[in-house]
Design goal:
- By secondary structure, the chain is mainly alpha-helical.
- It has two domains: about 30 residues; about 140 residues, Cytochrome Bc1 Complex, Chain D, domain 2 (Orthogonal Bundle), CATH 1.10.760.10.
- The protein has ten helices and no strands.
- Helix 3 packs across helix 7, helix 4 crosses helix 8 and helix 7 packs across helix 8.
- It is elongated and about 75 Å long.
Length: about 190
């Protein structure tokens, strides 16, 4: 008796197979006909954006948890080098105190966070993001061209950035080591 009742409530294997085939056909049609607008000027739906944001945040948190920041992260030397790197590589998208929105920063979707206004990530997460980049966000993987010590220098400056006035930001950038290429040559493993 129980077995008959169970059979009555379970969908048949042919029904499950037919449902799976219909889902594959629907997904294929969705992709083939370009139903979803991937343009950067057409925001994601709330559900898609929330899903992508959760995926990004959890992925970064999981991958960054075993990274150990250097003990001298707050050193003036790291912050100074980081200021120059930030001005050259990051300020076009992430801006800075007193920096006007650039054409590129206005066209990004999702918008790059203004790092002078927010600091809700820990140093390990910031390091991971700078080193590996973030898919579908225009955030490049700087670890392909920059060794870890320089990435930590950028993290050091980003951690300081929210406390800087526009004048202090300009002074930090102006006093940074000037020759990025020369710094790269001095790094182990770099030419």
């Amino acid at each position: 008796m129980n077995r008959d009742r169970l059979r009555y409530h379970l969908p048949s294997l042919s029904f499950v197979a037919a449902l799976a085939v219909m889902l594959v056909i629907a997904a294929s049609g969705f992709l083939w006909f370009g139903v979803y607008n991937i343009g950067a000027d057409a925001p994601h739906t709330r559900g898609v954006y929330a899903l992508l944001q959760s995926l990004r945040d959890r992925s970064i948190a999981v991958r960054a948890r075993d990274i150990t920041p250097p003990a001298d992260l707050a050193s003036p030397a790291r912050i100074s080098v980081g200021a120059g790197l930030y001005a050259n590589m990051c300020s076009g998208c992430h801006l800075g105190p007193g920096v006007e929105r650039s054409e590129i920063s206005q066209g990004l979707y999702p918008q790059a966070p203004e790092l002078a206004r927010t600091n809700d990530l820990n140093p390990q997460q910031q390091f991971w993001i700078i080193k590996h980049g973030v898919k579908l966000s225009a955030m490049p993987a700087w670890g392909k061209t920059h060794p870890d010590p320089l990435i930590w220098d950028m993290v050091a400056f980003i951690r300081k950035l929210p406390s800087l006035s526009p004048d202090a930001y300009r002074k930090a950038v102006a006093s940074a080591p000037a020759d990025h290429d020369e710094m790269m040559k001095d790094m182990p493993g770099m030419k």
